[in-house]
Amino acid sequence: MFYQPKDGHGLPHNPFNAIVTPRPIGWISSRGKDGVDNLAPYSFFNAVAYTPPQVMFASTGTKPDRDGTKDSVANIIESGVFCVNIVEFAMRDAMNASSKTLPANVSEFDHAKLARAECETIACARVAAAPAALECRLTQIVQLEGEGNTLVLGEVTGVHMRDDCLVDGVFDVTTFRPLSRLGYRDYAVVTELFALSRPDD
């Protein structure tokens, strides 16, 4: 099968997200100028550079109370900071609950019944029990093609790792089983690892 997106795919559901998988989930926390802590999962997320460490996420769509964007992007534009919380399998239901569309003045931390902790290098909350969290300073916002498509890039200024996830000096993802996003309504969980040496090693 071949299709051009501009012409449609003719399938019951859009296959694009199912093709580009698995994708890590950026559970983005931010704080509005009103002091409300926002938390939302984004599956268009990844790390993009080592030195300095940098990450990106993309927000798609809009909210009626956010003038052409969503809470996360609006808050980040105001504050210049955000935090990426890593999602473990045990937090899948809380992550899903935080994806609900809520009024801008309602915190997803409260809706999902999640404890929060204050970040160290930025004025933002993080998910207290997350296996890891990346405190970030906004570096760029890029408006992408299409309505409400916004790319957010940030430099990592602080890194939290839960102590039980460190094994012999290695951040061991099998201790918490990270969640990843697939297509449709599907997710996957990492339970097994294997190693490959690069040809130049």
Summary?
It contains 4 helices and 14 strands. With 201 residues, the chain is mainly beta. It has a single domain (14-189), classed as Pnp Oxidase, Chain A (Roll).
Q: Could you list some keywords that capture this structure?
A:
201 residues, Pnp Oxidase, Chain A, mainly beta, 3-stranded antiparallel β-sheet, 35% strand, 14 strands, single chain, 7-stranded antiparallel β-sheet
Please give a structural write-up:
With 201 residues, the protein is mainly beta. It has one domain (14-189): Pnp Oxidase, Chain A (Roll), CATH 2.30.110. Helix content is 11%, strand content 35%. It contains 4 helices and 14 strands. It has helices at 16-19, 71-79, 92-97, 108-111; strands at residues 23-24, 26-31, 37-42, 45-49, 54-59, 81-86, 116-118, 125-127, 132-143, 150-161, 166-167, 170-171, 179-181, 187-189. The strands form 4 sheets. A 7-stranded antiparallel β-sheet has the order 3-2-6-9-10-5-4, covered by helices on one side. The protein has a 3-stranded antiparallel β-sheet with strand order 1-13-14, with no helix packed on it. Strands 7-8 form a two-stranded antiparallel sheet. Strand 4 (45-49) and strand 5 (54-59) form a beta hairpin. The N and C termini lie far apart (39 Å). The model has no long low-confidence stretch (mean pLDDT 96).
* Number of alpha- plus pi-helical segments: 4
Overall outline? globular
Distance between the termini: 39 Å
Q: Specify Rg, calculated over alpha carbons.
A: 17 Å
The secondary-structure element order is: HEEEEEHEHHEEEEEEEE
Record the strand order, biggest sheet.
Answer: 3-2-6-9-10-5-4
Identify the CATH class.
Answer: Mainly Beta
Mean pLDDT: 96
